[in-house]
Write a structure and sequence with these properties.
- The chain is α/β, with parallel strands linked by helices and 191 residues long.
- It has a single domain, classed as Flavodoxin domain (Rossmann fold), CATH 3.40.50.360.
- Helix content is 40%, strand content 14%.
- The chain has a 3-stranded parallel beta sheet, sandwiched between helices. It has a two-stranded antiparallel sheet with strand order 2-3.
- It is globular, with a radius of gyration of 18 Å.
- Bound molecules: flavin mononucleotide (FMN).
- Flavin mononucleotide (FMN) binds next to loops.
- Its cofactor is FMN.
- Homodimer.
Length: 191
């Protein structure tokens, strides 16, 4: 719901947007296997049909991401980390020579000039920096690092906590998240 709010608020401001939705829970991506990994690390002229087929899905996801100005991720915490469905997507799009480069000494992100909005949902509370469960939050710091690694440095993270609490306890958290999102996105422009 908060992800939709981010999307709809951005679309109001950028009405000619074209949007690709990927529901990674309803249509899960396969985990990487050895053939796909071999394809990732093969030079284009060494890609025979089996390797090409193994990386076709990844190629599509990478092209999608390269073409995008804005990435919106909506992410529930599962066991203190991102759901494996999202991790599978990350494994398909973090591609040497496509979305990051390595020259033998240093890495560089190849996704320049893009913005990312990330909405994280936590069933419990206390996952902020310095809070009781802050050290158990492997969602936000991980995503921040991965996005930066790929070159996406313009990021905004929103969070909602207590989503597993009863409605009356949850409602103020949801309302606060809604307000934060609306306030932050007013006047947002494409990258
Ligand atoms: C398998 C599973 C694991 C979860 N693990 C955690 C967790 O470690 N910490 C937490 O605060 N909430 C956890 N939750 C609660 C979800 O993060 C929370 O319900 C979230 O709002 C779900 O996203 P949704 O509202 O978009 O469905 C878990 C939920 C599920 C289904």
């Amino acid at each position: 719901m908060l992800g939709d709010l981010v999307e709809n608020t951005l679309v109001e401001q950028i009405p000619d947007s074209s949007i690709i939705h990927r529901d990674l829970a309803d249509e899960p991506l396969p985990h990487l296997d050895a053939t796909a990994i071999a394809g990732f690390f093969s030079s284009p002229d060494a890609l025979h049909d089996t390797l090409k087929a193994a990386i076709a899905q990844s190629d599509e996801l990478v092209e999608e991401l390269l073409a995008a100005d804005i990435l919106i991720l909506t992410v529930p915490m599962y066991n203190f980390a991102v759901p494996s469905a999202l991790k599978a997507w990350i494994d398909h799009v973090v591609r040497i020579g496509r979305t990051f480069s390595y020259d033998g000494q240093s890495f560089a992100g190849l996704l320049q000039g893009k913005k990312a909005y990330v909405v994280c949902a936590y069933g419990a509370t206390g996952y902020g920096v310095g809070e009781p469960f802050g050290a158990a939050n492997f969602v936000e710091p991980y995503l921040r690092f991965v996005l930066t690694f790929l070159g996406i440095t313009q990021t905004e993270f929103f969070s909602v906590e207590a989503t597993s609490a009863p409605e009356d306890a949850r409602a103020p958290f949801v309302e606060k998240a809604r307000e934060t999102i609306l306030q932050a996105l007013r006047g947002a422009q494409p990258a």
